[in-house]
Amino acid sequence: MFKNRKGFFIAAALALVLALAGFSTPASAGVLMDVQEASWAEQAVEEMYAAGIVTGYEDGTFKPYNGVTRLEAVAMLVRAVGMEEQARAKENAKVSYRMPPGLFWGRGYLIVGVELGMLNKDYLDQLQPASPASRVEVAMLAYHALDLSPDSSPLTFDDAGQIPAEYREGVAAVVKNGLMKGLPGNVFKPADGINRAQMAVLLSNIAKFRPSEAYQARLVGGTLSQIDPAAGVISVQDGVNRLLAANCAVFVDGRRALPADLKAGDQVKMLLDGSGQVAYIEAAGAGAVQTYRGRVNSLFAISGEYWLGLTGFDGISITRPVMSGVTVNESGTQKDVSSLSQGNCVEIKLVDDKITEINMLKTSTITGRVEAVHTSSLSLRDDSGLLTEMNVTGDVDVKMGDIAMTFGEVQEGDRVRVTVCENMITGIEILHLNSVEGEIEELDTRGTWGITIRDGGGDVEEYEVDEDVVVKRDGDEIDFDELDEGEWVKLELDDDDCVIYIEVDEDEDSSEVEGEIEELDTRGTWGITIRDGDGDVEEYEVDEDVVVKRDGDEIDFDELDEGEWVKLELDDDDCVIYIEVDEDEDSSEVEGEIEELDTRGTWGITIRDGDGDVEEYEVDEDVVVKRDGDEIDFDELDEGEWVRLELDDDDIVVQIEVTDEDSLTVTGTVTGLDTGSSPEITVEKSSGSEVSYDISDDVDCIRDGDSIDLDEIVIGAEVEVRVRDGEADRIEVLNDEDITVEGEITDVSTSRGRIRIVQDNGNEFTYYLADGCDLYDEDGDRIDLDEVEEGWDVEIRLEDGEIEKLYQR
Known about the structure:
Strand content: 35-45%
Number of helices: 8
Radius of gyration: 38 Å
Strand order of the largest sheet: 9-8-7-12-13-10-11
Number of strands: 49
Helix content: under 10%
Structural class: mainly beta
Number of domains: 9
């Protein structure tokens, strides 16, 4: 029903469809007439009533023994943690999950409950309206609302075995922190319903344990300096006179009292009502123990006696003498009072205005991103994705590097590391990180992770990725290898330019189109006309600062060629700001001699390719047909002409070009090469299909315009193969420097930084290591060159002809 920190505690969801009568409405002005029926909870009820966290009924009663529905429990806890305003604002908010049917009110409380981790959105629609909340359910709601840490200490209740095992660590945390206790007879009664009086005590304990911003706004405390019951005026050391509400509730040492029972010098805590009048006062009499939690603001000695100044988490500041012999208790170790420093988080206990006990409180740090900043609190989404609302101490330390800042300078979106004590933020470090963004070009998930992005200016950069990187998409945390090439991401880098945070930006403004260049306009305002895979033709204006890339190299706009397939990136005005020539476009091409044309009904064409195979293709009615650079009609083609057909994803012909040569050209990656007595080449085309051709005895092999031998072509190279009469008579190497090759290591030279491999066809190739190259063994561990061994089967990634990465297979 409720969400469990360890994953197996998800309450079927706090069902909550309530009849309006189930939730009390504000009582008319006056005392709660029946509150003394539960005298053991009387002070807690009056305190929470004054704080506006619980309400009475219209007839002036509180009905302390009435049960509490699940929605009432959620609503009260949301108020207790100071999220009432947010809940009201979200009453009609749209959410992606389903609400329980028949819900008449309280929708905003449920939404905030989900945001706080109290409720699981996936089970919210299973809630049962008006169901009474059990004690264990409320304990778990409080556990998650306060984001407590699980406690594995064994519960000592006689009926502890009746508490579901998956709930016990949460219940133990609530009990350990003094928020709930057992019932008479040393039982917890987990399945019993919780009543309104018990709920008020829990809420009062929460206010003491971790007061909300709203609670603190009503709180005034200190030493009573003056009280005039007749005039209804009271003041503490701040010197401000405040009016007593007509029915101000007063308690001294836990017993109900009258304003006249108070005296100057008493330590008091007061709560103001909505009009600013004092509605509740609690005071400590002689010999009573008072407990304060907060940060040390001063420590000094007067005549050999220490005086300790404390700024309480509730906003109250006090300075009191430390009784002789008192030490500081830290995790069971006793330290001298002089060991305290300004900013330490401590709990102190006072008796008769002297400090009799000092306990050091534990602090922790959380790293995350600021979701929202409020007057004295902030919402932080930590690196695990958990959203937490935490109060900020009035004297919070804020810094960025060595620069001191104020809480008012913290902004939504800041990445921060916060110091937390008792869910109060005592320190905020704004992490000054370098940020870059761009489109993912490549992911490397083997060995040391890496990511290559292309920014808005077309520049390509590669970054190492921390193994603990946090990756977010749509607010959810995903694994690094779940990223996709082409996604626009924001990267945060540490001081070593290592990526520690990645966020996918689904709202990146630029859009992309692609197609074949029909026309370039390089005069005046530049323009480009492309035909997409469906045959549609569009013309675009081109920015004068456009970045154009081919094979990873930047070229001038006028170096583009008609017929090339390009990806265009457009800005908000549909102006082209980036162009990349795509040699691997998925649309496929076939060539052959026209055997037959069908120009009736659905058009068709039958061709015979260089291998003598005959294929028939459907032709798009908007097909573009070119002969000698001029566009002609489909029915002007002649049988016997050699044509190149371009097919869309459905193998429908969208373009036809008449060629003057009775040859076939194939472009792709060499996956097999036999250079022996019966030479043969196998090429994998961009479509993924493989074709093999015998190699002519007088084959021309070319690289960068120079002739090379056949055995100089490496398996893995990108090539263009011309086929005549079924044989490859020309092979041009398009790229053999930025590819991946495989083979067996035959030689390793550590002095020269060189490795020689032999491929399956027996041809050997030598490669040198690039500066900073990465080498990995078969376990994925990074190794040095002197650990690489002959005989290893390896995969080598080349960049500019040098080894960038090597993996043992």
